[in-house]
Amino acid sequence: MLTFIGLGLFDENDISLKGLDAVSAADLVYAEFYTSRLMGTTIEKLEALYKKPVHILLREDVEQNPDWMMAAKDKNVVFLTGGDTMASTTHVDLRIRAHDLGIETKLIHGASIISAVYGLSGLQNYRFGKSVSIPFPYISARGNRVVTETPYDTIQKNKENGLHTLVFLDINPDHGYMKVSEALKLLMEVEHKRNEGVMENQIAVGIARAGSDDVCVKADFAGNCGNFDLGGPLQILVIPGELHFLEAEALVKLAGAPDCILKEE
Ligand SMILES: C[S@@+](CC[C@H](N)C(=O)[O-])C[C@H]1O[C@@H](n2cnc3c(N)ncnc32)[C@H](O)[C@@H]1O
């Protein structure tokens, strides 16, 4: 049996009791932390809680050579991830691979950043369009710095349909954890390059450290990048589309957005 377990949002105590029982009963424990991280804990703390070793998988172990899962044919193997267990396509792919190998699978869910965003911002889940990820800029083969423009386009398309965009921020071994302020600067860079003037006067919502006691939620105009200094990681960004009056009220009262967004209604 291969059991996929979501660890929740912040530290070792965010796992469900069901999840903890499954880890305690497991013969082998694997985890990946490249799609998300639990910033409030360490591998040592997880191992102390589970009373067994946790084997950390690299991206290639998960996406290219998941041969470790063969043990699940006759053992209880658990696979741990930050957040919920199936919130990334990678994990669905892994489950399908297990199915094709004749391995039985089971899911034990955890709190996800996706639903935490709705609660923390007051933005309603049915008003979100396609989500997007912003990667760190990279240097092309010709030596140019390249800023990916797809996130900007997706945000504009969602906005045309009145929809909000959830923007995941890059976690990268070389660059670290992207912050909301950096993401906004990258979006603004695309905007200036295209000479379009919509982003600056657009409300943005930044959320940092969801699930911790130190959670921070801030809404302001995207042009005020300096007001989005939210402290440490992890961070996530939302670019709202049309605001329902309750959503606008929540952003003003719960996230410090300027009052003028209420007058737009
Ligand atoms: C690709 S998503 C993976 C989502 C995860 N499987 C889940 O269900 O929560 C990871 C991104 O979500 C955001 N994120 C995840 N946990 C977060 C947290 N506790 N607070 C703020 N942002 C978070 C970050 O932008 C991070 O790079």
Automatic annotation (TrEMBL):
<comment type="similarity">
    <text>Belongs to the diphthine synthase family.</text>
</comment>
<feature type="binding site">
    <location>
        <begin position="112"/>
        <end position="113"/>
    </location>
    <ligand>
        <name>S-adenosyl-L-methionine</name>
    </ligand>
</feature>
<feature type="binding site">
    <location>
        <position position="210"/>
    </location>
    <ligand>
        <name>S-adenosyl-L-methionine</name>
    </ligand>
</feature>
<comment type="function">
    <text>S-adenosyl-L-methionine-dependent methyltransferase that catalyzes the trimethylation of the amino group of the modified target histidine residue in translation elongation factor 2 (EF-2), to form an intermediate called diphthine. The three successive methylation reactions represent the second step of diphthamide biosynthesis.</text>
</comment>
<keyword id="KW-0489">Methyltransferase</keyword>
<comment type="pathway">
    <text>Protein modification; peptidyl-diphthamide biosynthesis.</text>
</comment>
<keyword id="KW-0949">S-adenosyl-L-methionine</keyword>
<feature type="binding site">
    <location>
        <position position="84"/>
    </location>
    <ligand>
        <name>S-adenosyl-L-methionine</name>
    </ligand>
</feature>
<dbReference type="InterPro" id="IPR014776">
    <property type="entry name" value="4pyrrole_Mease_sub2"/>
</dbReference>
<feature type="binding site">
    <location>
        <position position="87"/>
    </location>
    <ligand>
        <name>S-adenosyl-L-methionine</name>
    </ligand>
</feature>
<dbReference type="InterPro" id="IPR035996">
    <property type="entry name" value="4pyrrol_Methylase_sf"/>
</dbReference>
<dbReference type="InterPro" id="IPR000878">
    <property type="entry name" value="4pyrrol_Mease"/>
</dbReference>
<dbReference type="InterPro" id="IPR014777">
    <property type="entry name" value="4pyrrole_Mease_sub1"/>
</dbReference>
<comment type="subunit">
    <text>Homodimer.</text>
</comment>
<keyword id="KW-0808">Transferase</keyword>
<feature type="binding site">
    <location>
        <position position="9"/>
    </location>
    <ligand>
        <name>S-adenosyl-L-methionine</name>
    </ligand>
</feature>
<protein>
    <recommendedName>
        <fullName>Diphthine synthase</fullName>
        <ecNumber>2.1.1.98</ecNumber>
    </recommendedName>
</protein>
<dbReference type="GO" id="GO:0017183">
    <property type="term" value="P:protein histidyl modification to diphthamide"/>
</dbReference>
<feature type="binding site">
    <location>
        <position position="235"/>
    </location>
    <ligand>
        <name>S-adenosyl-L-methionine</name>
    </ligand>
</feature>
<dbReference type="InterPro" id="IPR004551">
    <property type="entry name" value="Dphthn_synthase"/>
</dbReference>
<dbReference type="GO" id="GO:0004164">
    <property type="term" value="F:diphthine synthase activity"/>
</dbReference>
<feature type="domain" description="Tetrapyrrole methylase">
    <location>
        <begin position="1"/>
        <end position="192"/>
    </location>
</feature>
<dbReference type="GO" id="GO:0032259">
    <property type="term" value="P:methylation"/>
</dbReference>
<dbReference type="Pfam" id="PF00590">
    <property type="entry name" value="TP_methylase"/>
</dbReference>
<feature type="binding site">
    <location>
        <position position="169"/>
    </location>
    <ligand>
        <name>S-adenosyl-L-methionine</name>
    </ligand>
</feature>
